[in-house]
Design goal:
184 residues; mainly alpha; Four Helix Bundle (Hemerythrin (Met), subunit A)
């Protein structure tokens, strides 16, 4: 197991800690701690890719597990936000369905001996997802610090951002399927 793969596994593990802090055992400053861990996990995503490319440590394990760790981090955080009534569940479910569908295709091809690495549109999608989730954390933290609930207009805005995530997530899935068809 090389360093990039260990970083990927650490990132996936952090997703569980974030959910634990937000939903299962919320403590004082749970949002702040979760946000710090989310930022750390997002940075590890960047770092493991850099190390893998610079040190020629790209592996089939990494090609499969890196996007799965991304999905685990993003989806678990979005589902936690939904559980906390910060974003709408139906949008999170749509994002999850797309992610499961594309991941299933990748695993199917892996079983057949062909590793399908993430495409550029998927990488941009993940960056956008992480930015939107970070923005949601910041808004929540600001209002928690002020001991205020989110105003309705801000809640609507956050849901519009998540709807944009739905659109971008499905768009990247369509791009992936088109490229896949061309490659096969």
């Amino acid at each position: 197991m090389n360093i990039p793969n260990l970083l990927t596994l650490l990132r996936a593990s952090l997703a569980f800690v974030i959910v634990y802090l937000l939903v299962i055992n919320p403590v004082d400053y749970a949002y702040v701690l979760s946000f710090i861990l989310f930022l750390l996990a997002s940075f590890l995503d960047y770092l493991d890719g850099i190390i893998a490319r610079r040190q020629a440590l790209i592996s089939n394990f990494g090609k499969i597990m890196d996007p799965i760790a991304d999905k685990l981090l993003v989806l678990s955080t979005l589902f936690a936000f939904s559980y906390l009534d910060i974003v709408s569940l139906w949008m999170v479910i749509l994002i999850a369905l797309r992610e499961v569908f594309i991941t299933s295709i990748r695993i199917h091809h892996l079983i057949k001996g062909k590793v399908l690495a993430a495409k550029q549109a998927g990488k941009y999608k993940t960056i956008f997802q992480m930015l939107v989730i970070s923005f949601i954390f910041i808004i929540i933290i600001v209002f928690e610090y002020r001991e205020q609930s989110l105003p309705d207009v801000l809640n609507i805005f956050l849901n519009l951002l998540v709807f944009a995530l739905v659109v971008i997530t499905f768009y990247s899935g369509i791009v992936y399927l088109k490229r896949l068809r061309e490659d096969l």
